[in-house]
Amino acid sequence: MGYFDGLVSSSFKKDGSGRTVYYAWGIFGTGRVLADARAEEKLRAFLKKYYIAVILLTTGLVALSGLMYLLLLFVPLLYVWFLVSTRAILAQCPVSDEPLRIKDAYSAMSAAANEFVIWLFLLCSLLIAAGGTWMMLRPGPLGARLAAALVMLLFGAGAAALAYMLGLKREQEEAEKKSRMRPGLGL
Fold first, then answer.
1. How many other CB atoms are found less than 10 A from the CB of residue 176?
2. Domain that residue 22 falls in
3. Tens of pLDDT along 122-156?
4. Domain end (from 100, 134, 149)
5. Which residue among 39, 73, 128, 178 is least crowded, i.e. fewest CB within 10 A of its CB?
6. Which secondary-structure segment (H or E) carries 122?
7. Do the beta carbons of residue 141 and residue 30 sit within 8 Å?
8. Count of domains in the chain?
9. Residues 125/159, Cβ–Cβ less than 8 Å
10. 3-state SS record for 29-55
11. pTM beyond 0.85, yes or no
12. Are strands 20-22 and 32-33 parallel, antiparallel or unpaired?
């Protein structure tokens, strides 16, 4: 699976009854118990398209063109698209009382993501954080140094999250190895 599959998977988990629960706002919101596998498929397909569109529009169009004010146009449009599309799928889905923990989200993401991609993102995050540190420590205007500090903090936190995901991926692989080595209980 790829990066976007991992990103999408971080918003889903199985509850105590084995039902699939979707968390639109991640660990900050309540979940919705999905009606069936078809609803989950539709939601996963939409979210993958949505995340790709968000990344392409914010990085591709805005960052490469240098027209940051376009964010003021596209962010609200993307938000409305997200709300309308997910409400159509979740309209009849009951609210779950189980919260999504950070470990649940990162476990799902690391299980679905390719280990090479996680390593690549970790390396890039560390390099960008190091660049932010270097820029922050150089003499220069206060605004530029504060922006560099923000870059260092954001990409440093991202690197920590990616390192955590690699640890979870290793745990998952070890658990799989142990379960394959155990003979069946015959139940």
1. 11
2. 1-100
3. 999 999 999 999 999 999 899 888 989 999 999 99
4. 100
5. 178
6. helix 115-137
7. no
8. 2
9. yes
10. CCCEECCCHHHHHHHHHHHHHHHHHHH
11. no
12. antiparallel
